[in-house]
Amino acid sequence: MPGNETAPRSTAAGDAAGLAAAGLAAAGLAAAGLAASGLAASGLAASGLAASGLAASGLAASGLAASGLRLIRAGDLSGATAQTSGMARAAAISGDLVGAQSLWMGRTVLPPGASSGDHHHGESETGIYVVSGSPAFVFRDPASGELVRLAPAPGDYIWVPPHVPHREENRSPDTEAVVVIARSTQEAIVVNVSGL
Known about the structure:
By secondary structure, this protein is an alpha+beta fold.
């Protein structure tokens, strides 16, 4: 269809020029008019991604930077991530697993009737998508001191700000609750605490 053509894609994942060979260095930025928009003045165009260390870091050599999208199958999630009692977290996307720079994603399963230990996620913001079940998220309201219980349904989302102690509960006595977690850090920061 006219107007929907795609640019040719570099297939030289191991090319010594790294990201510069993909057209992301000075030639690509200048040709796109980005140099005139202020990126050159900020040093981004002049330094280029290659000079910033990405090409020389292990990412280009390992193929992570140039290989494009990654598919992580449900059966490939890793339980080797920070845990809290009462639930099981499994990592899908992290620095260790796929080379993520500023994102962690995974799945948490709460058995029927379970309640997790109290915890927070340090500097990470956390987004939670409810896949199935009847989870509840409990935290202490800083203004009133009262416990607040959020009860989302499948398809709903929860946002957890940094450093806010909370716990997950499964309100169902016979069905597990499954949620997908996204965090703003490349690893799962979990700080288990003694109370909310």
